[in-house]
Amino acid sequence: MTTDLKDASSRDCAQAASEARLSRVERELQVVKDVAKALGSTLDLDTLLQIIMAKTMEVMDADRATLYLLDEERGEIWSKVTQGGEIQEIRLRIPEGISGWVAQTGETANIPDAYADPRFNPEVDRKSGYRTRSILTMPMLNNQGKAVGVVQILNRRDGKPFGSEDEELLRALTAQAAVSIENGKLYQSLLRRNAELQETQAKLERRMKELDLLYQIEQERFGADSLDELLDRLVGRAMDLVSARAASVVLVTQDRAELHFGAATGPKGQAIRKLRMPRGKGVVGWVVEHDEPVVLDDASTDPRHNRELAARIGYQPRSILCVPIRGEDGVLGALELLDKGPRANAGGADSQEDGAPGPGGEGEVPAPEVLPFDDNDLKLASLFAGHLARAIQLVGAQEVRLKESRLAAIGQMLSGVVHDLKTPLTIASGYTQLLPTTQSEEQRAAFCQEILKQFELMDSMTREVLAFARGDLQLLIRKVYLHRFLADVGEHLHRELEGKGITLQIEAEYQGLAWFDEIKLRRVVHNLASNAARAMPDGGTFTFRSATLGDSLVLTFSDTGTGIPEELEGRLFELFATSGGAGGTGLGLAIVKRIVTEHGGRIEVESARGEGTTFTVTLPLRRQNEEEQVAEDEL
Questions:
Q1: 508 — phi, psi (to 5°)?
Q2: For residues 169 and 159, what is the distance between their CA atoms, to the nearest angstrom?
Q3: Residue 91 backbone dihedrals phi, psi, to 5 degrees
Q4: Residue 444 to residue 423: CA distance in whole angstroms
Q5: Lowest mean pLDDT: which of 380-384, 404-408, 496-500?
Q6: DSSP character at residue 584
Q7: What DSSP designation does 580 have?
Q8: Which of 82, 356, 402, 522 could pair with 352 as two cysteines, CB 3.0-4.6 Å apart?
Q9: d(CA 338, CA 348)
Q10: Which DSSP helix (H) or strand (E) runs through 73?
Q11: Where are the alpha helices (DSSP H) in 153-246?
C-alpha cells in the first residue's frame, strides 16, 4: 500500500514536471513567434535593437541584456541600446571583457559566478552599484555562420545560473536577431546610398542650373549691342532665377559719386529706370559700400531701407535679396531682387497692378504670398552677380574698343575726305578762274552752277563724316540715269585731265538705269582717274567704260601708264599704301575699295609694267526687290 502511494506520488511529480516543462516550452515558442513577428515589423536598426533586448529579457527572464554589434574596421564591439539603464553608446576593444572574448573566439560564455571569472571587470559594478551574479554571453551568427555581434544577459530573476536550456533558447533568439540586424544594416546602407544619390543629384541639378545660367548670360552678352541692352536682357533672367516679382541692377556712376538704376523689371520698373541716388543710400547703397549681401524678410523694419524712394515709387516690398556685383577693380554695383513668390502675372513686366511690388519701390498694397529668400536663393543670386560682373566688364571693354575704333576710322575717313576734297576744290577753282574770262551771261551761270555742285559735293563729304561718327553707315542708294552720270563725270574728268597730255575716252556701252550712291561713286571715278594721271606723267590715254554682265554693272578704268610698282603688289588697297611718288597719300585706292565694298560690289586690278593698269568695278545693277519698279520706270 505504501509502495503504491509512493509510486503514484512519483508519477504525479513527474507529470507535473513534464507539464511545467511543456508549459515553458509553449511559452518560449510563443515568445519566439512574438520576437519573429516583432523583428519583421521594422527595418530601422535602432528600433530593432530595442525590440531584441526587450524580448530577450522577457523570454530569458533576466535582469539585464546588452547587444553588442561588431565593428570590424575599428576592431571593436559597440552597444547603443542597454536595458535596465540609460541609453548610451558603449565601445569595447576586442578581446576586452567577456563580450570581447566571445566576439574574438566565437564561443559561448556561460558563467555562474561572474566574480570567479578573471575576464570579468568588477569596476562596472562598483560604479553602478549593481551586483552581477551569473552571465550568459553568446555570439550572434548570421546565416553564413559569421559573427555580426554579441548578446549578453545578466542574472536570472530566480537567482539560478543559466542552464543549457537557456543557451538553446538564446541561440534560437540570436539566430533570428542576426538575420534581422543584417537586413537592418542593409536597409540603413541603402538609405545612406539613396541619400548620397539624392544629394549628388541635387548637386548635379544645381551645377546644371549654374551652367545653364552661365550659357544664358553668355548668349545674352553676345546678342547685346550695348550695356543697357545687356542689362535689360539679364535683369529678367535674375528675377525668374529665384521666383522674384521684381529685380533691378544698380551701378556705380563713372565718377563713383552716385548710384543709378541701369535696368529694372517688374511693375515699377519703368518708374525707376535711370534714377540716381547718393552712394550709401538704401539697401543697395549699403551693399555697394560694404561689399556684403543683404537678405531681409521684412524690409519695413530695417533702417537701411530707402523710405524716401519708397514714397516716390509708392510701394513697400516685404522681402529683399541684394548682392554686390564685384568687378576686378572693386564693386560695380548691386543686384536687387524683391518679394519672392509666384509671378502675379505672366503678361509682362509692367502688366501687373500698381500695388504689386516693384524694384526699389514701396507702397500701400501688400503683395500676397510673399516668401522669404533662403540660402539657395542667395547662392544663385551671388553666382548670377558674378557672371553679370564679367559680362558688364566685357561689354564695357567692347564699347571702349568700339569707340576707339570709330575714332580711328573717323580719323581715316577725315584723311580720305581731305584727300578727296582736292578734286572738287580744283574744279571749283578752275571754274572760278574762268568766270572773269567770259562775257556770256549764260556761260557764267553755267560756271556758277558747276561751282555750286562742287560745294554740294564737299558738303556731302562733311555730312558723311558726321553720319559715321553717329554710327550711321547707310549708303544713299538711289536711282541713277547712267547716261547723265557719264556725261557729268566726263565733263569734270576732261577738265581735271586737261593740260596733262592725257586723252579721255568714255565708252558708254550701257547707259540705262542703275542703283548706287551717286556722290560716293563720283569719288571712286575721280580717285581712279587721279591715280591713273600719276601713273602717266608724260601723258597717255585714260578710258572709262560702262557695261553690264548679267545683273551686274561693270565699270572699267584703264590707263596706259607705268603699271603698279613692285613694292605695292599685294597691298594696293591698304591704307597709306604708296610708292612714294609726289602727291600720293596712299588713301585713294583704299577709299575706292571701301566704297565699292559698301555697295556690295568688288574691285579687281590687272597691271603690266610699262603697259598700263585696268581697274574693274562690279556693282549690283539693281536694288533688291526693285526689278518691277525699274521696269515701270524704263517704260
A1: -90, 80
A2: 18
A3: -125, 135
A4: 21
A5: 404-408
A6: -
A7: -
A8: 356
A9: 16
A10: none
A11: 164-223, 227-241
- What value does the CA radius of gyration of the chain take, rounded to a whole number of Å? 50
Query: The C-alpha cell of 557 is what?
Result: 578704268
| C-alpha cell, 611 | 603697259
What does the chain come to in residues?
635
Backbone torsion region of residue 615, taken as left when φ is above 0, otherwise alpha when ψ lies between -120 and 50, otherwise beta: beta
What backbone phi and psi angles, to 5 degrees, belong to 358? -135, 160
User: Bridge partners of 612?
Assistant: 608
- 463's CB contacts (< 8 A; 6+ apart) are none
Q: Are 615 and 554 in contact, with CB atoms under 8 Å apart? A: no
Q: Which residues of 397-436 are buried (b: 16+ CB within 10 A; e: fewer)?
A: eeeeeeeeeeeeeeebbebbbebbeebbeebbebbeebee
Half-sphere exposure of 223 (CA within 13 A, CB side): 10
Please give the residue that has the higher pLDDT: either 557 or 254.
557
CA-nearest of 340, 328, 342 to 378 is 340
What is the residue-averaged pLDDT of the chain? 77
Cα 170 from Cα 137, distance rounded (Å): 9
| Strands, E assignment, 286-393 | 294-296, 320-327, 330-340
Do β-strands 502-508 and 540-549 pair in parallel, antiparallel, or remain unpaired?
A: parallel
In sequence order, the 6+-apart residues with CB closer than 8 A to the CB of 161 are 110, 112, 113, 133, 134
Task: Report how far residue 89's alpha carbon sits from residue 476's, in angstroms, rounded to the nearest whole number.
Answer: 90
Q: Residue with C-alpha cell 600720293?
A: 584
| CA 318 – CA 442 distance, rounded (Å) | 84
In whole angstroms, give the CA distance from residue 517 to residue 479: 9
Whether the Cβ atoms of residue 321 and residue 370 lie closer than 8 Å to each other = no
| Separation of alpha carbons 498 and 521, rounded Å | 21
Grid cell for residue 514: 542703275
Q: Roughly how many angstroms between the first and final C-alpha of the chain, as a whole number? A: 158
Look at residues 125, 174, 120, 131 and name the one whose alpha carbon lies nearest to residue 155.
Answer: 131
The tens digit of pLDDT for each residue in 355-369 reads: 334 344 344 444 457
Residue with cell 498694397: 365
- Among 61-75, 361-375, 452-466, 534-548, which range has the highest average pLDDT? 534-548
Average pLDDT over residues 601-630: 81
C-alpha triplet 280, 284, 286: angle, nearest 5°:
40
pTM surpassing 0.85?
no
Query: What's the whole-number mean pLDDT along residues 288-293?
Result: 91
Residue for grid cell 531584441: 52
DSSP-derived 3-state class of residue 332? strand
